[in-house]
Amino acid sequence: MTTLKSINPHSGETMKTYETFSDEVIESKIQIAHDTQKTWKNVSFKEKQKLYHNLAGEIENNLEELAALQTLEMGMIHSASKAGLKSTAHLARWFADSAASLLQDEAFERDGEEGKFVYDPLGVIFGIAPWNFPFNQVLRAAIPNTIAGNTTVYKHASNVPQCAARIEQLFLDAWFPEGVYTNMFVDSDKSEMIISHTYVAWVNLTWSEWAGKSVGSLAGKYLKPSVLELGWNDAFIVASNTRIKEIAEAAMKARIANNGEKCNSSKRFVVPEAYYDDFVKYAKEAMENFKVWDPMLAETDLWPLARPDLRDEVHTQVEKTLKQWARLITWGNKIQGDGNYYEATILADVTPEMTSYKEEVFGPVATIIKVKDIEEAIQVANNSDYGLCGCVYGDNQEELRDIATRVHTGMMFINKPAGSRASLPFGGVKHSGYGKENGPDGLRAFVNKKVVLY
Question: Which CATH code fits 3-230+432-453?
Answer without folding.
Answer: 3.40.605.10
